[in-house]
Amino acid sequence: MPVKVQQEDFDVGAEMQSMRSDNGAIGALVSFVGLVRDVNDASAIVEMTLEHYPSMTEKALQDIVDQAKTRWDIIDALVLHRYGTLRPTDQIVLVIVAGSHRGDAFNACEFIMDYLKTNAPFWKKEVTSQGERWVAARESDMKAAERWSHRAPKGNN
Amino acid sequence: MITILYFASIREKIGLSHESIQLPSDVKSVAGLAVALRSRGDKWAEALSTVNLRVAVNQTMALQDTEVNDGDEVAFFPPVTGG
Questions:
Q1: What does pTM read for this prediction?
Q2: In the predicted model, what is the mean pLDDT of residues A47-64?
C-alpha cells in the first residue's frame, strides 16, 4: 500500500477493508490510530496545526514501512498521516499492518509508530488559552525508537 | 546553487522559509553549511545552534558530516513531532 499524507480525515473501517483485499494469506490485521488530545503539558488545547515537509514526508514514511517489511514477516503496511489544523478528538495518523500471524504484525505496527515519531518530518503547533507554542519532542519517543535496535529480529514471533 | 528550507520554530526565528544560494567553495558538508549560515548574524546563530538541530539533504535525514553538493536541497528543522 502506498503511504498517504493528506489534510482530509480518514475512515478506519474503509482502510482496514482495503488492506484485507480478500487476501487469504492474511491472518492478522493490527491497527493504531493517533488522536488529538484536549490537554497537553497541563494546558487545554484549543487546536493544533501540523506543519510538514511536503517532498520528504512520503519518502520518510515509505522508508519506515520498508524497514518494517525487512525486519518482520508481514504482508503489507499502510501509514496515513494528516497535516493542517486539527481539533481535540480528531484523528491524526493511522497505521495498519497485515500479516499471516499476530506477533510480527504487532511488532511491526509498534515499530512503525516509534520510528514515525522520531523520523517523519511533521511539527505540531498548539493553540492554548495562553497562546501558541511549538510542541517539544519527547525524550520518551526517542527512547522508544532506540529500543528497537535491541528487539528480537524476524522470526522470533 | 543549493536550495535551503527552514521549518517550524527555526523558520519563525529566522523569518525565512526558503532560499537559494551559491554553495560557498569551502563548504563541503552539513556542518560547514551550518557554520556559514550562523555567521550571518545573531538570529541565525541562535536559530541554527538549537540543541538537537535536525537536517535533511535531498529529503533524507542527514548527519553533521553528510556531504552537501551543488544542486542539493538542504532542510533545517527542530526534532520532529508528528504522529
A1: 0.92
A2: 96
For residue B2, pLDDT over 60 is answered with yes
**Cα–Cα distance measured from residue A102 to residue A110, given in angstroms and rounded to the nearest whole number:** 12
- When pLDDT is averaged across residues A104-112 and rounded to a whole number, the result is 97
Q: Is the per-residue pLDDT at A58 higher than 60?
A: yes
Q: Does residue B71 contact residue B57 with C-beta atoms inside 8 Å?
A: no
Predicted ipTM of the assembly: 0.94
Q: Do B9 and A50 touch (CB under 8 A)?
A: no
Say if the Cβ atoms of A134 and B78 lie within 8 Å.
yes
Of the candidates A41, A28, A58, which has an alpha carbon nearest to the alpha carbon of residue A120? A58
Within 8 A by CB and 6+ apart from B18, the residues are B3, B4, B5, B6
Whether the CB of B78 is below 8 Å from some CB of chain A: the reply is: yes
A66 CB burial (10 A radius; 0-12, 13-18, 19+): exposed
- Show the cell assigned to A3: 503511504
Closest chain B C-alpha to A156 CA, distance in angstroms: 27
pLDDT beyond 70 at A154: no
Q: Which residues of A are less than 8 Å from B8 in CB distance?
A: 51, 123, 125, 134
Q: Give the Cα separation of A71 and A110 in Å (integer).
A: 12
